[in-house]
């Protein structure tokens, strides 16, 4: 992976060999992930019912009835939560896991408040084709937001390009040829020069660390493979940060984007959701092992306290990055360049960044 910015002051390259791995990470399209998760569920031998319908209302035992915007209302039975679906079916559950995304109805129906703000950025996403195969992830920070080129196999890559909302409207409606030109410029020398390879090597501040250098330390800057054409529609999404004030109440937990949404600049949204799911499954298994009620708030709070702390830290880091790259001011640009070069040449730091970003290690506060 190569990360650099428009100032030409620095770049960082990460290589799977830096951490003795085969790959740094995988870019998986949402539809592929959905299909394989569904087939995993279908192939398990525990009892399951899959409803292809949407949630209309939930009633929690300790609460009065809560009703969706469609106006339906219900009441809970015994100590379970009651869920009503828009196909007329209803069910009772010891635990409701709200995994229904940033606009979570479960969160809303449970009256869980959120904290957050909108970024003055939208992201255009699309799939593009190259003339050659792309095996590398590329990210360049531009004055109005980062552009990422993420390989998805063969000669195709996905683009996630954050920018001013007005620019997003214009770039979403420009001709395909003009859009491809704009992408190639953004990933090459548009907005500023290429970083000079090895500009900080040889007698530089990091040279004393050379003995411990990683495989990618001496890799020079490369220009990403050119995009030849668009391979999908373009879609634009407004970007925001959102955090649920609480992740758990009796018979309810929130996971994934229902609990937190972040800026996509580091591609951490899905990793955070996976870490939530892993932690929740561990807590439920511990509860089941000792005969606890899996909807009990004391059990669910163990999930909340572990994940809330880790998610807030990641959100603060990503928000800090977003803000640091919203400023074009020489002293800040130099500080950012130092950070890039620190990550490029200080091998222990580089290995730690790879471990945290790939979700293999918890951030230092939580180890
Ligand atoms: C522009 C952009 C680019 C991004 N790029 C990346 C990236 O490169 N890497 C990365 O890791 N993350 C990225 N993210 C973040 C990532 O998309 C989210 O973190 C991730 O999709 C969250 O998964 P989720 O399952 O929690 O929620 P979602 O993916 O939103 O899934 C929620 C599901 O719940 C369903 N649902 C909602 N309401 C109901 C209801 N009432 N009844 C039944 N079902 C319901 C929805 O249909 C949906 O299928 C990006 C986000 C944006 C906006």
TrEMBL record:
Domain annotation FAD-binding: ranges: 234-310
Keyword terms: FAD, Flavoprotein, Monooxygenase, Oxidoreductase, Ubiquinone
Pfam families referenced in this protein's UniProt entry, alphabetically: FAD_binding_3 (PF01494)
PROSITE patterns reported for this sequence: UBIH
Assigned GO CC terms: mitochondrion
Coiled coil: none
Cofactors: FAD
GO biological process entries: carotene biosynthetic process; ubiquinone biosynthetic process; xanthophyll biosynthetic process
UniProt keyword Ribonucleoprotein present: no
GO molecular function: FAD binding; monooxygenase activity; oxidoreductase activity, acting on paired donors, with incorporation or reduction of molecular oxygen
Family, similarity comment: Belongs to the UbiH/COQ6 family.
PANTHER family from the UniProt entry: UBIQUINONE BIOSYNTHESIS MONOOXYGENASE COQ6, MITOCHONDRIAL (PTHR43876)
Listed name of the protein: Putative ubiquinone biosynthesis monooxygenase COQ6-like
Organism field: Solanum chacoense
